[in-house]
What we know:
Layout lengths: L1 E4 L14 H9 L3 E5 L10 H7 L2 E3 L2 H7 L2 E3 L17 E3 L20 E2 L8 H4 L3
Parallel strand pairs: 1-2, 1-4, 2-3, 4-5, 5-6
Helix pairs in contact: 1-2
Amino acid sequence: MIVGVPKEIKDNEARVGVTPAGVKALTEAGHKVLVETQAGAQSGFPDAEYQNAGAEMVGDAGYAWGKADMVVKVKEPIESEYVYFRDGWFFSPIFTLRLCPRSPTSCWNPRLWASLMRPFATAKEICRF
Length: 129
């Protein structure tokens, strides 16, 4: 499985969906991890730590979203990210539908698979896929 980790772009959000330790666990489990450049910078994780853990750094959010079988984010997607949704794709944020600006259906595609993880889910839990 290819796991995408885009940089969070929601206002005042400095966390990242997967830490370098999570990348290491995912890659050791046989998954490929695409991390957008600077995705972990505001959380204190430089790109080099992700690379050392086995991630492929990508300079474009669209690439991280578009090539991934599963995307891991901290927050719900914002409207500018809706264009990345596609059929059969797995999305795993700490996601609350009530935060969608218009309605849950405005930012949700019924043909998506979603896992609504509790905060601080471990890489081992993510690796079960």
